[in-house]
Design goal:
The complex is a heterodimer. Chain A is of the alpha/beta class. Chain A is 32% helix and 30% strand. Chain A contains ten helices and 13 strands. A two-stranded antiparallel ribbon of chain B has the order 1-2. The longest helix of chain B is centred in the last third of the chain and has 35 residues. Classes of the chains: A alpha/beta, B mainly alpha.
């Protein structure tokens, strides 16, 4: 069963090609990460999935329907959190949550109260008085308080503090347990890694990779910088170790998750003085794996979405 | 670095941002002055006509509410009729400019970016002030030139310009304070507009309570006018003495406002106002249900203001109906032509109903352009991501706007009918006649509403400019100005208002009404069809 099927999707804004034959498949019941740097075309894709923008070419199916033609019937079955939440300055957060729920066709009252509590949101404040993070919470509560099959979340945690980010992750996990489908667009690798069953990486309007994190193992390599009392031998011959740079008793390398155990055994013998290990940032990842050009940071500066 | 560092580049930034907006305001107001002066000149072929018309303006309390007579002259007559309009528009121009370059920058976060650069604390206020004062001075000069170009004496013309500019300056001061007090740019504009409303009423009442001098051509105002910046401008008496000293009061208001704003800037956090934000409801009320409920919520503030205005407008115009039968000369001809009857009472009622119809058209444009703001500012995105179709969204806004328009016309008719009934007797008959005359105006409103829908659908980015321009064209080509400006008939026929039956003076013909309704339906259908098929122009 597929909740979202996109193939060969093309979208142009004037001369700019925002989406260039993008493919994306989201299975029913999964949390799917839609990962890419700013300007890669994530928001454009989501807006096409919502029928807010028209596609120029390609096939798009959402919950078995055409998002441009069957807009209203599909929208009863999905909820959306925009990346940039713009609301009516003179309405309160509580009013907006109720309004959006009613416009969608219903709201789970007890769930609404529970979510307000969990996200620590004051519903009596007017939207103009909310910070960016609080506006984001209004949109999150409005979306999660509705009982729908599909949730489209476009960079939903921008502006949330770490505590609220944790609440958000809990809620998304509960949705997966309840069998709902979630498309989570993000430019934060760790967030996607923590929540998603499968991930599609989009770059310059095209899907660069797609699969489970196991399949994309090379994406989750840990970077290790280590200094030892004695020189380490044979580090480069261990399975799963890549891009080793040795400088006397200092070493720097990337390692696959299942190679990590043997690497640590080896290092322990050499008596570790200092060790830092870090997951790759999305930027490093892109530079390392698709580093054939530096086009995307430029697009980022231009603010193309 | 002192508090004013960076003022010059910020002033340049303001000029650059308003390079289209500002010339449109300036040339529009100067053009309006030129047109209204030309109309006055053409409207009074003999001195006797001019004396007659001025005497009517000076001796009728209702007329004094909207214009102050300072003696009989062509330029003076133009000022009686249009000074208040010009002053209100100049005040709005100043208000919008001040708010845009202080408060609105803050809201969009631009001020933080700029404020983090080498810019003093007061630089933004100073730049906005320089920009706005310069705009008002240029406006004063252009208005003076427009009147001189139409053959008026230079002294009076430039006093007239200065009187308009002075109102603008005073409201630059008001807006400077409002921009610091309110907690949003919309709030700041609203606060200034409220002050403007009070200023308008105070000067109007002051003139109404004043007395015409023995010649019957000049009004000595009562004391309330001295409380109002519009009153100060009127007391400069363009073409009737040309006093410049009341303008000093406007300058004093400007300085006081700016000083207060500068003090407040130093005490206030970026993004917050001095007036506290009230808490609201934690649940949506029953009315906030569906797209129509949302449209009503977004339009109701404007509606409330307009409702009070239209009722008051009706009451005043009804109260002066008794003087209409005594009219002679050019003024009589004007009403007869506008009202479509030589029978003065009917002509007057018909022409006032037409004016109400045009006023309501302004309301409709104002509230329907909200659709464009919803799209450009972003709140439309979550709405259309729910089970609301684009068609239903447009229909809701149109339905609420037109319902509002109907109620406004009814309020006007009831107000005028009751007041006229109090003067002439038979309030019931007067009211029912005016109710019918008021409702006959609806097809014109429909066409205007359809124009806005078409503009929002076809030309989203230019929708506001296109809608207001077409409305202004429709009013200028219409029965209020077209015949007086001696425009060719085909040009007058372009205005929907030209085709509205002149009830109660003339019979209501179904053909004209049907034609207008059909045109409106076609325009609205095209606009909606395009809107359903195009990409939304959402913020990125």
């Amino acid at each position: 069963m597929t909740a979202i099927a996109v193939s060969g999707l093309v979208k142009n804004f004037g001369r700019t090609r925002a989406l260039d034959r993008l493919d994306l498949t989201v299975r029913t019941g999964e949390v799917h990460g839609f990962l890419g740097p700013n300007g890669a075309g994530k928001t454009t894709t989501v807006r096409i999935l919502l029928g807010l923008l028209r596609r120029d070419a390609g096939q798009v199916t959402v919950l078995g329907g055409d998002p441009w033609r069957d807009t209203v019937t599909l929208h009863r079955r999905l909820a959306y959190v925009p990346g940039e939440v713009n609301l009516w300055p003179n309405l309160t957060g509580g009013e907006v949550i109720d309004l959006l729920g009613r416009l969608r066709g219903g709201l789970d009252e007890s769930r609404r109260a529970e979510l307000l509590e969990r996200f620590a949101l004051d519903p009596t404040k007017r939207c103009r008085a909310y910070s960016k993070g609080n506006r984001q919470k209004v949109a999150l509560v409005a979306a999660f308080a509705s009982n729908v099959e599909l949730y489209l979340l476009d960079e939903p945690t921008s502006g949330l503090d770490p505590l609220m980010e944790a609440v958000f992750q809990d809620v998304v996990r509960e949705l997966r347990v309840a069998g709902r489908t979630v498309l989570l667009s993000s430019h934060i690798l760790s967030e996607v890694e923590a929540l998603c069953d499968r991930v599609t990486i989009v770059r310059a309007g095209r899907a660069a990779e797609s699969g489970t994190f196991d399949e994309l193992r090379h994406l989750t390599r840990t970077t290790v910088v280590v200094e030892t009392a004695r020189p380490v031998d044979g580090l480069g011959r261990l399975p799963g170790v890549h891009d080793l740079v040795l400088d006397g008793r200092r070493a720097r390398f990337d390692v696959d998750p299942d190679g990590l155990g043997r690497v640590l055994e080896k290092l322990a013998v050499a008596d570790v003085r200092t060790l830092t290990s870090s997951p790759p940032t999305l930027e490093e990842l892109f530079l390392r794996h698709y580093g054939d050009d530096i086009a995307w940071p430029r697009q980022d500066l231009a603010g193309v979405r | 670095m002192n508090g004013l560092t960076g003022t010059v580049p910020l002033t340049r930034l303001a000029l650059r941002r308003d390079r289209v907006n500002l010339p449109v305001w300036l040339l529009g107001l100067a053009g309006f002055t030129g047109a209204t002066t030309a109309m006055s000149r053409a409207g009074f072929p003999t001195n006797e006509d001019l004396l007659q018309a001025t005497r009517l303006m000076a001796t009728s309390p209702g007329m004094r509410l909207t214009g102050l007579a300072s003696g009989a002259s062509v330029g003076g007559y133009a000022m009686i009729r249009d000074y208040v309009t010009l002053a209100v528009l100049a005040a709005l121009m100043s208000t919008f400019a001040m708010v845009r370059h202080t408060r609105q920058s803050e809201e969009t976060g631009r001020a933080e970016v700029v404020g983090a650069a080498v810019v003093g604390r007061h630089a933004e206020l100073a730049a906005a002030l320089i920009f706005t004062v310069a705009a008002d001075v240029v406006l004063a000069a252009l208005i003076g030139l427009a009147m001189v170009a139409n053959g008026q004496p230079a002294a009076g013309s430039f006093t007239a310009g200065a009187a308009v500019g002075a109102a603008g300056l005073a409201f630059a001061g008001v807006a400077a304070v409002a921009g610091q007090l309110a907690s949003s740019s919309r709030g700041a504009s609203g606060l200034s507009a409220a002050v403007l409303g009070v200023a308008f009423l105070t000067s109007g009442v002051g003139n109404m309570l004043g007395r015409a001098d023995p010649s019957g051509l000049r009004v000595d105002s009562a004391w309330p006018v001295w409380l109002s910046p519009i009153g100060w401008g009127q007391q400069m008496r363009p073409f009737g003495g040309d006093h410049w000293w009341p303008g000093l009061l406007s300058l004093a208001a400007l300085f006081a406002g700016v000083a207060a704003a500068a003090l407040l800037t130093a005490r206030r956090d970026v993004g917050h106002g001095m007036l506290p934000q009230r808490r609201g409801h934690d649940r949506a009320g029953r009315l906030l249900h569906g797209p129509a409920g949302l449209a009503w919520r977004l339009q109701r503030g404007a509606f409330a203001g307009w409702a009070v205005g239209m009722l008051g407008f009706g009451l005043v115009l009804g109260a002066v109906i008794g003087q209409m039968t005594e009219l002679t000369g050019a003024a009589r001809d004007w009403y007869a032509r506008l009202g479509g009857s030589g029978q003065m009472l009917d002509a007057y009622r018909a022409s006032m109903a037409q004016m109400a119809g045009m006023a309501v058209a302004i309301y409709v444009v104002q509230v329907l352009l909200r659709m464009r703001h919803e799209e450009a500012d972003g709140p439309l995105e979550p709405v259309l991501a729910t089970a609301v179709s684009r068609w239903r969204w447009v229909a809701s806004h149109v339905l609420v706007a037109l319902s509002g328009a109907i109620v406004l016309l009814l309020l006007f008719a009831v107000g005028m009918g009751l007041a006229a009934g109090a003067v002439l007797g038979d309030p019931y008959g007067q009211t029912s006649t005016l109710l019918r005359a008021g409702l006959v105006q609806l097809p014109g409103t429909l066409v205007v509403a359809a124009i806005v829908v078409a503009a929002v659908g076809l030309l989203p980015r230019a929708a506001a400019a296109v809608s207001w321009t077409l409305l202004m064209a429709a009013v200028l080509l219409g029965p209020l100005f077209g015949p007086t400006l001696r425009l060719p008939q085909w040009a007058q026929d372009l205005s929907p208002f030209t085709h509205i039956p002149k009830a109660p003076a003339a019979p209501v013909t179904a053909a004209a009404v049907l034609a207008l309704v059909c045109i409106a339906a076609v325009l609205a259908a095209i606009g909606t069809a395009v809107l359903r098929r195009r990409n939304l122009a959402l913020p990125t």
